[in-house]
Each structure stands twice: as C-alpha cells, then as structure tokens.
Amino acid sequence: MSDHFTSSFDSLETELSFADVDPGEGQRWSTWPAITPSERGPQPWPAWVVTSAGALDTERGILKTGKEADVFLLERAVPDDPTQHTLLAAKRYRSAEHRSFHRSSVYTEGRSTRNTRDTRALARKSDHGREVAAAQWSFAEFEALCRMWELGAPVPYPVQVNGTELLMEFLGDADGTAAPRLAQVRSDRAELQEYYAQVVDLMLIFAAAGFAHGDLSAYNLLVHEGRVRVIDLPQIVDIIANPQGLDLLHRDCVNICDWFARRRVECDAEELFAEMLAASYA
After folding, report:
1. Is pLDDT at 84 greater than 70 in this prediction?
2. Count of CB atoms within 10 A of residue 238's CB?
3. E strands along the chain, which residues?
4. pLDDT for the residue numbered 105
5. What is the mean pLDDT of the chain?
6. CA torsion 133→142→164→40, rounded to 10°?
7. Minimal CA–CA distance to 211: which of 253, 177, 242?
8. What is the pTM of this model?
9. Does 180 sit behind a cis peptide bond, omega within 30 degrees of 0 on the bond before it?
C-alpha cells in the first residue's frame, strides 16, 4: 500500500471517528476552521495551538468578570489525542443589551470603522451600533495583541478572534489556576524592583511603536513564571492620532509609579513619562 494511500485512508478514518463524537453540555466544535486567516494569530503559530477541525471546545469556568467583557477558561482538545490539548482564555465582550458605551469615546478617538453604515450606527447608538461597538473592541484588542506580540512585548499570544469572542493564551497552571495579578503578588523589595524594570521595558515597547496601554495598572499586569505580562488591551491608544493620547500615557506612568512607590520602589512618574516620550519620538 502506497504512503499516499495510507495517509488518505488514515485521514478518512479520523474524520469518520470525529463524526461519531457529539459535543456534550458546555461543548462546541472548535471555531478555528470557520474563521478567516486574518482572524487567526501571527504565524508561526506556537506548537501548543490546536488547529484540528476535530477539536472540541469545552467550558471550564469563569476567570474574570468585568464591565465590558467576561473571561472564561476554555479547553480546546482533540478527543482521545493527548498531544492536541490546550487551555485558552476566552474573552467575550458584552452583547448589545448588556454592554454600554461607557468611556469608549476616550479611547476610540482617531480610530475608523469599516464602513459608513457602521459609522452611522455607532453615532446613533442603535442596536446595530452596539453590536458594531462590541465587535470593534474585540477586534481592536486582537489587532493590538498581534502587533505587540510581533514586537516582542510580553502579552498573551492571540489565538483567534470571532465576532465578540477573543481567544488568547491562558496564563496559568495546567490545572486551570490563573496567574496572579501584580496587585496580588507578595514580594520583597528586590523582587518588586525587578518587576518594575520589566514594566518599564514593556511600556517602552508600546511607546516606541507609538502606543500607550491607556489603562495600565497593577490589576492588568500578571506575573507568570517570574515574568510580568500585560493584558486588557482593547483601549490601546495611538499617542499621536488620539487627541488624549499623551494624557493617557501620562496617566499610565502615574498609576504605575504610585503603586510601586507605595511599596518602596524608587520611581518618578515625570521621569518615566519623559522616557516614554523620548522612545515614542525616537
């Protein structure tokens, strides 16, 4: 039997075995095959990303609730194949009837929509406008994560975006325990100084690309395996295009320095702001 025939036979046999599996409660077929290439994360895809059409997505609980979105723990795995298994963070933005436009205009100045109908709907705050707004946030965060990942910033890898759902690398343990926020970490002064240096480095990557996080604090910085990782990027702002970009960058600097200074880590918000400005105009 030829290798080509054997390979085709094995593939058919696998597809037939998948057809015998029905998603159970809290499960669905993987959404990966249904999305376009532009909705998938940067290549090369990490080895842990499961791309099989035969994978199932299983809900494993909630990780975080928020005003704009909730984050769930999702397991993506191919049944009976332990080599194709991963945990993902599924961030789901609020639906039209549950989500508000609160504070969104501060961050969206300078952004554009895909078509004039969407622009008009956003202006009227119609039901369609709210749906557009929710999807805009998920796509904005996905695009920001992709760009920052490619620049080497310590962000979770963006696996895919599908409507108002964004799937990302899960930062935590194999048992589903999420990495702690920086605000929850109990560390000595030397360790905190190292974390501060890491935060400055990631802010510099953002600034050099012309961006500010826009809402940076110890609550959207995680500490995973000794490394500070930044999350919650839907409000990322272009320092130049957004009229409030510099103010938001300055606020990030103040928030970070205030938190570290209260823990006896030497830092100065104005010096940090000047450093970010220098990087953004370099």
Report:
1. yes
2. 15
3. 27-29, 56-64, 69-77, 85-93, 158-162, 165-169, 211-212, 221-224, 227-230, 237-238
4. 53
5. 86
6. 140
7. 242
8. 0.84
9. no
